[in-house]
Amino acid sequence: MIKITADMEAIIKQTMLSFVATVNADGTPNLSPKASLTVTNGVLYFADIASPRTILNLRRNPAIEINVVDIFQRRGYRFKGRALVLPPGDGEYLMIADWVRATNGPEYPVNHVVKIETTSIIPLLSPAHVFARPPRSQDEIRSTYHQKYRVKPIGA
């Protein structure tokens, strides 16, 4: 399993929304947004709050891909691996369920917790990082996309 770095963890925390891809029984992709993706001790986890198809797919085929992109930094990561569906009562399940409820409220159901055994991590960079001439700094890119999305950074 490949450990998640501090930069990867920071991107996950900043984006607050990731997209999880699994494979349906007919071979078609299933894409599910997740606001519960988190990192603990270098390992990825997310909660099944309202994703029965994702869990069904992972029980049949544990292949998973998670994409996380910070829209302002124009970069992120693609995590590939094998998913383990943790049942209620498991120690790791309880750790993540407690975090979800502390973050969102006690009324949020946590049906399962999914732990990712990461086998591949690929950085994702937009063309703003690759093709801009002269190359732009991360601060310049962030400022440009704050303006494009008409968003003011907190404290600005």
TrEMBL record:
Alphabetically sorted, this entry's keywords are:
Plasmid
For this protein, the record's Gene3D superfamilies field holds: Electron Transport, Fmn-binding Protein, Chain A (2.30.110.10)
Pinpoint the Pyridoxamine 5'-phosphate oxidase N-terminal domain residues: 5-107
Pfam families the record matches: PNPOx_N
Q: Which InterPro entries match?
A: Pyridox_Oxase_N, Split_barrel_FMN-bd
Q: State the protein's name.
A: Pyridoxamine 5'-phosphate oxidase-like protein
Q: What species is this protein from?
A: Cupriavidus necator (strain ATCC 43291 / DSM 13513 / CCUG 52238 / LMG 8453 / N-1) (Ralstonia eutropha)
